Amino acid sequence: MAGDWIKFELATLDKPEVCQIADLANIDLDAVVGKLLRVWGWFDQQTEQGNAPSVTKKLLDRLVGVIGFCDHMVSVGWLIEADGVISIPNFDRHNGKTAKNRSLTALRVASHKKTNGKGNAANVTPPLADALPKEEKRRDKEQQQQAPAPIAGIEARQRFEMFEGWAPDEVSIAPHLKLIGVTADQVTKQAIAEFVSYWMTRDASHNQGSWCRELVASIHRNAVRTAATSGARPGRTSQHTGLANQDPHAGLEANADGTFQL
Question: At residue 260, what are phi and psi to the nearest 5 degrees?
Fold first, then answer.
Protein backbone atom coordinates (compact mmCIF):
# COMPACT_ATOMS: atom_id res chain seq x y z
CA MET A 1 0.00 0.00 0.00
CA ALA A 2 1.26 3.46 -0.91
CA GLY A 3 -0.14 5.83 1.69
CA ASP A 4 -3.27 7.76 2.59
CA TRP A 5 -3.49 10.01 -0.50
CA ILE A 6 -3.68 9.65 -4.26
CA LYS A 7 -2.71 11.87 -7.18
CA PHE A 8 -5.66 13.72 -8.73
CA GLU A 9 -5.53 16.23 -11.58
CA LEU A 10 -8.01 19.11 -11.59
CA ALA A 11 -8.42 18.65 -15.34
CA THR A 12 -10.19 15.35 -14.57
CA LEU A 13 -13.26 17.29 -13.40
CA ASP A 14 -14.10 18.34 -16.96
CA LYS A 15 -12.86 15.34 -18.92
CA PRO A 16 -15.33 13.86 -21.45
CA GLU A 17 -14.98 10.45 -19.77
CA VAL A 18 -16.58 11.90 -16.63
CA CYS A 19 -19.46 13.29 -18.68
CA GLN A 20 -20.01 9.93 -20.38
CA ILE A 21 -20.06 8.02 -17.09
CA ALA A 22 -22.53 10.56 -15.68
CA ASP A 23 -24.76 10.04 -18.71
CA LEU A 24 -24.57 6.24 -18.54
CA ALA A 25 -25.09 6.06 -14.76
CA ASN A 26 -27.69 8.87 -14.74
CA ILE A 27 -25.94 10.74 -11.92
CA ASP A 28 -24.39 14.22 -11.72
CA LEU A 29 -20.75 14.99 -12.57
CA ASP A 30 -19.68 15.67 -8.98
CA ALA A 31 -21.04 12.29 -7.90
CA VAL A 32 -19.07 10.61 -10.69
CA VAL A 33 -15.82 12.26 -9.56
CA GLY A 34 -16.44 11.22 -5.96
CA LYS A 35 -17.10 7.62 -6.91
CA LEU A 36 -14.06 7.52 -9.20
CA LEU A 37 -11.91 8.68 -6.30
CA ARG A 38 -13.50 5.96 -4.20
CA VAL A 39 -12.52 3.28 -6.75
CA TRP A 40 -9.02 4.67 -7.36
CA GLY A 41 -8.43 5.03 -3.64
CA TRP A 42 -9.47 1.42 -3.07
CA PHE A 43 -7.00 0.16 -5.69
CA ASP A 44 -4.25 2.34 -4.24
CA GLN A 45 -4.82 1.05 -0.71
CA GLN A 46 -5.56 -2.60 -1.46
CA THR A 47 -3.30 -3.44 -4.44
CA GLU A 48 0.37 -3.09 -5.31
CA GLN A 49 0.19 -2.76 -9.10
CA GLY A 50 -3.46 -1.91 -9.75
CA ASN A 51 -4.60 -5.54 -10.28
CA ALA A 52 -7.45 -7.08 -8.28
CA PRO A 53 -7.76 -10.77 -9.31
CA SER A 54 -10.06 -11.75 -6.43
CA VAL A 55 -12.42 -8.77 -6.67
CA THR A 56 -15.52 -8.53 -8.85
CA LYS A 57 -17.14 -5.53 -10.47
CA LYS A 58 -20.22 -6.26 -8.37
CA LEU A 59 -18.22 -5.74 -5.19
CA LEU A 60 -16.80 -2.44 -6.42
CA ASP A 61 -20.27 -1.33 -7.54
CA ARG A 62 -21.45 -1.98 -3.98
CA LEU A 63 -18.50 0.06 -2.71
CA VAL A 64 -19.56 3.14 -4.70
CA GLY A 65 -23.30 2.52 -4.39
CA VAL A 66 -24.12 2.49 -8.13
CA ILE A 67 -24.97 -0.69 -10.02
CA GLY A 68 -23.03 -0.91 -13.28
CA PHE A 69 -20.56 1.84 -12.38
CA CYS A 70 -17.56 -0.38 -13.10
CA ASP A 71 -19.01 -1.34 -16.49
CA HIS A 72 -19.23 2.37 -17.29
CA MET A 73 -15.57 2.80 -16.29
CA VAL A 74 -14.69 -0.07 -18.64
CA SER A 75 -16.62 1.53 -21.49
CA VAL A 76 -14.54 4.73 -21.28
CA GLY A 77 -11.23 2.89 -20.85
CA TRP A 78 -10.68 3.73 -17.17
CA LEU A 79 -11.01 0.13 -15.99
CA ILE A 80 -9.82 -3.06 -17.64
CA GLU A 81 -11.35 -6.52 -17.27
CA ALA A 82 -9.34 -9.35 -18.82
CA ASP A 83 -9.42 -13.07 -17.97
CA GLY A 84 -11.45 -12.40 -14.85
CA VAL A 85 -8.98 -9.83 -13.48
CA ILE A 86 -9.95 -6.19 -12.93
CA SER A 87 -7.19 -3.59 -13.17
CA ILE A 88 -6.57 0.14 -13.48
CA PRO A 89 -4.81 1.16 -16.73
CA ASN A 90 -1.54 3.11 -16.33
CA PHE A 91 -1.68 2.54 -12.59
CA ASP A 92 2.04 3.18 -12.13
CA ARG A 93 1.78 6.67 -13.62
CA HIS A 94 -0.63 8.07 -11.03
CA ASN A 95 -0.77 5.61 -8.12
CA GLY A 96 1.56 3.56 -6.04
CA LYS A 97 4.65 4.60 -4.11
CA THR A 98 6.79 5.35 -7.18
CA ALA A 99 4.23 7.68 -8.78
CA LYS A 100 3.71 9.53 -5.52
CA ASN A 101 7.44 9.99 -5.04
CA ARG A 102 7.62 11.49 -8.53
CA SER A 103 4.80 13.91 -7.72
CA LEU A 104 6.36 14.95 -4.42
CA THR A 105 9.75 15.46 -6.06
CA ALA A 106 8.21 17.62 -8.77
CA LEU A 107 6.38 19.72 -6.17
CA ARG A 108 9.54 20.19 -4.10
CA VAL A 109 11.51 21.27 -7.17
CA ALA A 110 8.81 23.73 -8.22
CA SER A 111 8.54 25.15 -4.70
CA HIS A 112 12.31 25.48 -4.37
CA LYS A 113 12.59 27.25 -7.73
CA LYS A 114 9.80 29.66 -6.83
CA THR A 115 11.28 30.45 -3.39
CA ASN A 116 14.80 31.18 -4.64
CA GLY A 117 13.64 33.34 -7.54
CA LYS A 118 15.58 34.46 -10.55
CA GLY A 119 18.45 35.91 -8.51
CA ASN A 120 19.79 32.46 -7.63
CA ALA A 121 19.21 30.90 -11.01
CA ALA A 122 22.67 29.34 -11.08
CA ASN A 123 22.06 27.46 -7.82
CA VAL A 124 18.48 26.41 -8.43
CA THR A 125 17.61 22.75 -8.90
CA PRO A 126 17.05 21.89 -12.59
CA PRO A 127 13.59 22.67 -14.03
CA LEU A 128 10.58 20.59 -13.17
CA ALA A 129 10.80 18.47 -16.31
CA ASP A 130 14.42 17.54 -15.46
CA ALA A 131 13.35 16.32 -12.02
CA LEU A 132 11.26 13.56 -13.49
CA PRO A 133 12.81 10.10 -13.95
CA LYS A 134 14.51 9.46 -17.28
CA GLU A 135 12.16 6.53 -17.94
CA GLU A 136 9.07 8.73 -17.80
CA LYS A 137 10.67 11.41 -20.03
CA ARG A 138 11.70 8.73 -22.51
CA ARG A 139 8.17 7.31 -22.60
CA ASP A 140 6.65 10.75 -23.21
CA LYS A 141 9.11 11.39 -26.03
CA GLU A 142 8.27 8.06 -27.68
CA GLN A 143 4.54 8.78 -27.44
CA GLN A 144 5.06 12.13 -29.16
CA GLN A 145 7.12 10.52 -31.91
CA GLN A 146 4.57 7.76 -32.45
CA ALA A 147 1.61 10.13 -32.65
CA PRO A 148 2.12 12.27 -35.78
CA ALA A 149 -0.54 14.73 -36.84
CA PRO A 150 -3.28 12.53 -38.34
CA ILE A 151 -4.95 15.40 -40.16
CA ALA A 152 -3.12 18.01 -42.20
CA GLY A 153 -2.66 21.23 -40.24
CA ILE A 154 -3.58 19.72 -36.84
CA GLU A 155 -0.96 18.68 -34.32
CA ALA A 156 -1.46 15.49 -32.31
CA ARG A 157 -2.03 17.34 -29.01
CA GLN A 158 -3.93 20.29 -30.47
CA ARG A 159 -7.55 20.62 -29.33
CA PHE A 160 -10.16 21.29 -31.99
CA GLU A 161 -13.90 21.16 -32.52
CA MET A 162 -15.42 18.37 -34.58
CA PHE A 163 -15.71 19.14 -38.30
CA GLU A 164 -17.03 17.51 -41.47
CA GLY A 165 -14.41 15.22 -42.97
CA TRP A 166 -12.79 14.23 -39.67
CA ALA A 167 -11.56 10.63 -39.46
CA PRO A 168 -9.62 8.55 -36.91
CA ASP A 169 -6.04 7.50 -37.58
CA GLU A 170 -4.53 4.09 -36.84
CA VAL A 171 -1.96 5.30 -34.30
CA SER A 172 -4.44 7.25 -32.16
CA ILE A 173 -7.30 4.76 -32.25
CA ALA A 174 -5.37 1.50 -31.79
CA PRO A 175 -4.90 1.60 -27.98
CA HIS A 176 -8.56 2.49 -27.39
CA LEU A 177 -9.78 -0.39 -29.57
CA LYS A 178 -7.72 -2.75 -27.42
CA LEU A 179 -8.66 -1.29 -24.02
CA ILE A 180 -12.40 -0.86 -24.66
CA GLY A 181 -12.80 -4.10 -26.61
CA VAL A 182 -13.93 -2.91 -30.03
CA THR A 183 -12.68 -4.45 -33.28
CA ALA A 184 -11.45 -2.43 -36.24
CA ASP A 185 -14.29 -3.87 -38.35
CA GLN A 186 -16.82 -2.10 -36.09
CA VAL A 187 -15.36 1.30 -36.99
CA THR A 188 -17.41 1.64 -40.16
CA LYS A 189 -17.89 4.70 -42.36
CA GLN A 190 -21.48 4.92 -41.15
CA ALA A 191 -20.39 4.85 -37.48
CA ILE A 192 -17.84 7.61 -38.14
CA ALA A 193 -20.38 9.71 -40.07
CA GLU A 194 -22.96 9.47 -37.27
CA PHE A 195 -20.29 10.30 -34.69
CA VAL A 196 -19.12 13.36 -36.63
CA SER A 197 -22.68 14.52 -37.24
CA TYR A 198 -23.50 14.30 -33.53
CA TRP A 199 -20.42 16.15 -32.25
CA MET A 200 -20.56 18.88 -34.93
CA THR A 201 -23.63 20.21 -33.09
CA ARG A 202 -21.89 20.18 -29.68
CA ASP A 203 -19.63 22.79 -28.15
CA ALA A 204 -16.68 20.51 -27.38
CA SER A 205 -12.98 20.52 -28.18
CA HIS A 206 -10.58 17.56 -27.89
CA ASN A 207 -7.29 16.51 -29.39
CA GLN A 208 -7.09 13.74 -32.00
CA GLY A 209 -6.48 10.99 -29.48
CA SER A 210 -9.46 12.02 -27.34
CA TRP A 211 -11.76 12.17 -30.35
CA CYS A 212 -10.65 8.64 -31.32
CA ARG A 213 -11.39 7.39 -27.81
CA GLU A 214 -14.81 9.09 -27.91
CA LEU A 215 -15.56 7.32 -31.20
CA VAL A 216 -14.56 3.89 -29.88
CA ALA A 217 -16.54 4.39 -26.65
CA SER A 218 -19.58 5.45 -28.68
CA ILE A 219 -19.38 2.34 -30.88
CA HIS A 220 -19.03 0.16 -27.77
CA ARG A 221 -22.09 1.73 -26.08
CA ASN A 222 -24.20 1.30 -29.20
CA ALA A 223 -23.16 -2.36 -29.45
CA VAL A 224 -24.10 -2.96 -25.81
CA ARG A 225 -27.49 -1.29 -26.26
CA THR A 226 -28.19 -3.24 -29.45
CA ALA A 227 -27.40 -6.51 -27.71
CA ALA A 228 -29.65 -5.57 -24.79
CA THR A 229 -32.64 -4.73 -27.01
CA SER A 230 -32.36 -7.89 -29.11
CA GLY A 231 -32.67 -10.32 -26.24
CA ALA A 232 -35.74 -12.19 -27.56
CA ARG A 233 -35.01 -15.90 -27.96
CA PRO A 234 -35.21 -16.93 -31.64
CA GLY A 235 -37.31 -19.86 -32.78
CA ARG A 236 -39.80 -19.71 -29.92
CA THR A 237 -43.48 -19.42 -30.92
CA SER A 238 -46.02 -17.86 -28.63
CA GLN A 239 -48.63 -20.21 -27.16
CA HIS A 240 -51.29 -17.54 -27.68
CA THR A 241 -51.29 -17.42 -31.48
CA GLY A 242 -54.00 -18.91 -33.77
CA LEU A 243 -56.82 -18.61 -31.20
CA ALA A 244 -59.24 -17.27 -33.83
CA ASN A 245 -59.13 -20.61 -35.64
CA GLN A 246 -59.87 -22.72 -32.56
CA ASP A 247 -63.33 -23.97 -31.46
CA PRO A 248 -63.84 -22.96 -27.81
CA HIS A 249 -66.57 -25.65 -27.38
CA ALA A 250 -64.53 -28.53 -28.69
CA GLY A 251 -64.76 -31.54 -26.32
CA LEU A 252 -67.72 -30.10 -24.34
CA GLU A 253 -71.33 -31.39 -24.11
CA ALA A 254 -74.10 -28.85 -24.70
CA ASN A 255 -76.83 -28.48 -22.04
CA ALA A 256 -80.47 -27.60 -22.68
CA ASP A 257 -80.02 -24.13 -21.15
CA GLY A 258 -77.25 -23.25 -23.62
CA THR A 259 -74.35 -23.93 -21.26
CA PHE A 260 -71.66 -26.56 -21.73
CA GLN A 261 -70.16 -29.26 -19.57
CA LEU A 262 -67.28 -31.70 -19.82
Answer: -130, 155
Phi/psi at 79 (nearest 5 deg)? -150, 140
| The length of the chain, given as a count of residues | 262
pLDDT (tens digit per residue) in 1-37: 445 777 777 888 888 999 999 999 999 989 999 999 8
The domain total for the chain is 3
SS3 at position 193: helix
Same domain? 105 vs 90:
no
Contact at 8 Å (CB) between 173 and 218?
A: no
- CATH number of the domain to which 185 belongs: 1.10.8.1180
Last residue of a domain, one of 146, 181, 211: 146
For 74-203, list the strands marked E by DSSP. 80-82, 85-87, 160-161
Whichever domain contains 17, its CATH number is 1.10.10
pLDDT digit string, tens, across residues 76-97: 998 888 877 888 887 666 565 5
Max Cα distance, the chain (Å): 118
- What is the identity of the amino acid at 196? V
Confidence bin at 239 (pLDDT 50/70/90): low
Q: Are 187 and 216 in contact (CB under 8 A)?
A: yes
Domain containing 164 equals 160-229
